[in-house]
Amino acid sequence: MYKEGFIMAWASLIANKMRSLLTMLGIIIGVAAVIALVSIGFGVRQQIQDSISSLGSNLLMVYPGAPRTPGVRPTAASQKTLKVKDYETLKKLNDVDMISPVAGSSSYVVVYTNKNWTTTVNGINSDFQYINNWTMKSGRFITDAQVERRERVAVIGSTVAKNLFGDENPVGKDIRIKNDPFKVVGVLDTKGSGSFGNDQDDIVFIPYTTAMERVRGVDYLSMIYIKAKDGADLNRVQSDIENIMRVRHKIKNPELDDFNVRNMATIMETVNETTGTMTLFLGAVAAISLLVGGIGIMNIMLVSVTERTREIGVRKALGATYRVIVMQFLIEAVVISLIGGAIGVVFGIGASKLISAATSMKTVISMGPILLSFGFSMAIGLIFGIYPARKAAKLNPIDALHYE
Question: What is the pTM of this model?
């Protein structure tokens, strides 16, 4: 019975090729969209994880202002709580290997002769290069002596170098930031796109002391990067940092902290939660196409029942039972959805690879979404084929034989 059902379903599809293809189109688009969008979600998560992992597992970051809580938004004043004295105190911790303050992450117009480029300017110290794994293409990075002397020196990313200098060697040349001259002492190696597609090479680094006093005119830091020594207990180091910060800021109740310390484990957990939610949302949006495809299958099966009323009547008159008729039309609906699902899988994998090749966005193709979307397409065919199948099985043989 099942073999005959599949043969009849295939014969029906071949007899109406264009109609069958249009019926499958909703399933094809739905399955392809689910696979492509979920692969983008997985790719974004992988890209962020790789970016975070490249910094090492022993990195901590201290942010100003209280952590966000539901219904509470930090005020502008609360973002100015991180001071240079905090950095100097934390620097003395035994388990701290490297530490760098960050003064600002502000956008400025950088000028060289008659060319200008808007980029991000960060104030840092010499440890920042090693904490964030930056390598030099030419020249050198900012030194501690230059930080202490508040020198107007700059290290630029490859994007800034290309747009301001072209093929000219930037090292030793003067650029202007806020109309102040800065000597370029180094050019960074290319890093490419970041976790969210941002250009990591569109950056300028200057001494944090220069950034605070000569560029921004502020007395607070934006954040502090801390790299713990190898083998150090990261949770214990974080606890020590929090205790020191509370003593310095005279905070007795931890719930009133005006700073926020995050380690790599916390950041990775947050990233996984965020990207997981995003991937689920993308998959759910794409799955709506599958439901639309299911409605298309039900519609065409109802048309098929109407067209084949005499055939159904003959089969029932010759002894075909209710179960046999239902099974015949259910198999036909499932075959349509399975073929559509298989084509959708091919298109989905192809779309994922095309997106990865044509853009800087990374995609990760996983068997889980492929099997899930394929199985879901079969379920859609089964569910939306029940009503037409039951309608066909309930036809009266005598009425069916006299149907015009």
Answer: 0.61
Tokens of 147: 């930080």
Rg of the Cα atoms in the chain: 32
Task: Determine whether 270 is exposed, middle or buried from the number of CB atoms within 10 Å of its CB (0-12, 13-18, 19+).
Answer: exposed
Q: How many CB atoms lie within 10 A of CB 318?
A: 8
Summarised one tens digit per residue, pLDDT across range 201-247 is 999 999 999 999 988 888 899 999 999 888 888 888 999 999 999 99
Tell me the two tokens of residue 381. Answer: 């065919």
Task: Please write the tens of the pLDDT for every residue from 4-21.
Answer: 767 776 777 777 778 778
Q: How far lies 350's CA from each of 29, 289, 365, in Å?
A: 13, 18, 10
Q: Which of 86, 93, 81, 66 has the alpha carbon at shortest distance from 234? A: 93
Paired with 213 in beta bridges are: none
Point out which residues pair with 226 in neighbouring strands.
60, 99
Task: Give the β-pairing of 59-64 and 259-263.
Answer: antiparallel
